[in-house]
């Protein structure tokens, strides 16, 4: 629960306030004072009458009513202080900085629970314990530095690690990134990353609120809520980027040794971020660079013009953009010639536009004008202007500043001379701009952003999937584990997923009669033995009745043989669909081409059920082998629409059958005309009733 | 030609010296003076008696003998000044800063040529024109800033773009990277990147010289020389990293609009760097990070321990290292327990080792001791220590400094708090250390370095390839273009590459007799028509004489049919080898699996002929589909040794037949036992004699 007293308290008390700014209780008071908090500020300190000029009380019992309390006292003392404040002082918000709780010991976890019970009982907010606090434009309730520049249109940063938040700020302030708020949720006992996001979504004010959210998450505790509120915010016009640390096996160990987090499987995270439209980042540097890009107007297309007075960085940036699927289109024709005529001899306008080392601020202005008004195919401009130190860059950056106010297209400032033109860059940043010091880091970040899809629709595609029947089938299955073929068939049928005709019998005549009906050639498989192939229990391409009769007799002699299954022998491209239930995330659906593509090349893409058509297409199209699905070099492709439909249908089936913990359709055969499941396995697990 | 007067001049004259440090002729004089140049310093300025306290002469004719001349005067005035200095003043080295030469106009190119002729006639060195100059520990002959900290063991930076060199320095100084020299070769009229490298190689002194070279190259003018001297330096113990800008199609355009460079094909660059053992980088940030890693001792293995007092960055670093093929192995057992017992409760030692936010400098020392002496499987340590600003970090960084002097294993300092602990980081850097402010950037750079192979052996593997015969065959081919099948066969035979038996005839009886000898089934192909498949001219899997006779008759009816070719029908995994002659680089050899792997997935790796066995294996093993070659999931693999041998033999053939401009063997069929060429095409181009 996030109360208004947490966000905009009229009064704050620092319990454990100190004159020593090397202690959290001293540092946070200093930050509150220097942050210009305008409400009533109080301190609790048993030994002082005044701390850093703020009136101090010996005990929380002596404090007047106070809306927000910050606790910087030993863990064992916290529960009582919280009780007194909540009960007697009408305190409706708590920030507990202290460590020594659930992250360390069992006893600590009990203290933490006691605090939570109290704040919940009084309808109060709790940030922490074990955190650096909360910083916003109203109050600087953090004990850490650096304090970034604050602006209501700046970034909201929500971090599950305090130290990481601090280091993200280190990386951000150098770039000029401004913040609206910084949340360090610590142990997140009451308020976690998901809760902050939910609050921001439910109270979103498009006029007043920040549109940019950066997240650092070590453990996604509630994927559904993260997905719902992240997508919702993005649909309302927000931009969200996040680091989910612990993506590798060793990385997961690191995360769990840190906060007791059990890392979620990474493909589930990948799928969730794609579904929500969250830009995934892997480093602080990347996160803050993406954050800086978010502060600029959105690109309407992928065509970039580069303006520079130094060739090399323009070349490297072009490489990075091209690699990331962006374009640096050639500029030519009348407009290009007109521009060239107004620059110094030797300047080039082909893109990158190189105004030469001697290029003037007026040249930059001219190039920006042309990019905005004459080069219609250009969607964004990147201006690389550093200096070897001969002249100052104030005039040049003034032109950038001025044009950035008015230009209809986004302008990305790349100012590499952070030392030599340090004063100029600082002045530019002081006007509220960001700076991308490394052009390739920007190019890579922008490409990453441009390749993230919009949030998926939240409606479930029903497509006539027979949900009551699915429930009846699931409920009728007697045991956990891999279910029998007839249940598999029934479930796929209820979901409207075409399955190859098949017939099982221990009667030779019936088997032959079926083969005659469906047409030769057929495939025969023994029913009963587990490893069919190993015992000669699978025969492909049986072309006639006589051959089938012989195989039937032979197969029925195999130990454990109960019957023989016959299917028509189809020819097509092998596809694959699989799904796995991930605790808390739900079903992760994988798709790809079959055989070596899945097994050797691991060329699969993932999505989170339920899936929409656009998501299914996006999954299919992000396969490396997509060209084979589309058809290539005279080879016909497969029916992509039907493939997508089956993915969507399967995801709907899964949504209503959460007992399915694992399943795969492999192979799914496909031609230009049809896509049909040939073999499928489903494993269910029902809770003991 | 690089003269000693260029490197360690006893006297320097700045022609066009100025009191205005906003002009190159003023800035370079200021840099020389503030750089403490200890020789005789002179100026030429028609209006002054003294410039910045240095005696000025009105004309170059009045100057006493001077070893090095720096020209900062208009291009048109340079040739005469050079002539006077070289002829009358014994000047043996020139740095021409001025622009307005070949990079701009035809007239400029002529002036440039005139200067070159003069300096060559007098055996002098020429850096430039159109450059920022040359900076080393002896003299700061650059007009640009920043001036990095200089140290004889620092980095040698060689750049074909002056502005890029300046921006690389901006990125480097922030990290504390020190330099031995910075070369901006400008138009490289006499001395290009390759020349500097050659000089460094031929005069290499393992005791005195820097072991680290960073290159920025827009155009590889002489790939052979770059390869030879880069490999040679690396074999002598040097480490080299390079940016070759212009890797994308648009990027190449950017590079050529910049310096008139014609970009080389990127796979040739990739192949050359692999062969030389050069670490390829794509951004300034990456290049300087790799440069910083190079300053630390080399890793003996891939196992890293991470020590931190903040969890998050440790997790992200673990992710990045794992993704790059490095390990963050779990630390356990007695030693781990012993360490844990000496840290604060709640600390974890599983790796990352987390000493908690309250961890002390002594804890860090202890962890470093354990990593050095107790954890035998650890090859390197990364220490992440920032601060939220409560206490200063001087003591902590002193421990790092101290241990870095003595530890047998490399220690990577990651100090993220560049603002809050700015003073501490600065003091640490002042001791000659580097700092990796972003842990993931370091992890990625280190992985990149660890995955670069050693330089390839320079000897050509002959393997009994019959070179005289190859030359006779090539010389006997009458025309350019795709050569006839019997020439292809003869060349592969001379190279010792097994080729499937085949027989061509317009006589049906002979064709059938051959098929009988080699054994059915066979493949028959019509000889004559170009697009054989389109006219029904290819039939696979012919199982008997009668069928072959029928197909022979049918094929001979096809328009343009001259004969029929018969081969035994082999079964195996399809492989692919191709080669292309790249101007200046020589033959780029590609290998991969055949079919969709090459055509759709573009899963090929490249090497530069001639290839050694280790290179061929490295090419094969860097294929994404390598598991198929090795054998997977019960599927037998193919004979990797024979595949490698054919790659090596082909590369040797190519080395002695540079007339071959393009060729491919596709398919090359392979089983566990054999690898054999089934079809091959070769295109030759001989120079008009």
TrEMBL record, chains A, B:
Keywords (A to Z) from UniProt: ATP-binding, Nucleotide-binding
Residues of the ATP-grasp domain: 489-525
SMART domains attached to this UniProt entry: CoA_binding
Entry protein name: CoA-binding protein
Alphabetical list of Gene3D superfamilies matching this protein: ATP-grasp fold, A domain (3.30.1490.20), ATP-grasp fold, B domain (3.30.470.20), NAD(P)-binding Rossmann-like Domain (3.40.50.720), Succinyl-CoA synthetase domains (3.40.50.261)
Record keyword S-adenosyl-L-methionine present: no
GO molecular function, one term: acetate-CoA ligase (ADP-forming) activity
Pfam family, one: CoA_binding_2
Protein source organism: Bacteroides pyogenes
